[in-house]
Design a protein that fits this description.
single chain, about 80 residues, mainly alpha, 4 helices, about 75% helix
Length: about 80
């Protein structure tokens, strides 16, 4: 059985809670998947985790980041 785009959208709009997000992620991955980029991001995430655990970097709350952004916009 084949569905039109409109039919699939209507089904997706009625999915419970987090399932629309999972569907969107799955669709994006199917279109934009690039193994080289995926591996590069995985390596970057690991590097950042290692830096955090070694005390080489720090984290910032959203409030701190937002304040910095707003300060830069004013200048």
């Amino acid at each position: 059985m084949s569905h039109t785009l409109h039919e699939v959208q209507q089904i997706a709009f009625h999915l419970p809670e987090d399932e629309p997000i999972e569907l969107a992620n799955s669709l994006l991955e199917s279109v934009w998947s690039n193994p080289e980029v995926d591996e590069a991001w995985k390596a970057e995430v690991e590097r950042r985790i290692d830096d955090l655990e070694a005390g080489k970097s720090t984290t910032h709350s959203w409030e701190q980041v937002e304040a910095r952004i707003r300060t830069r916009q004013v200048k």
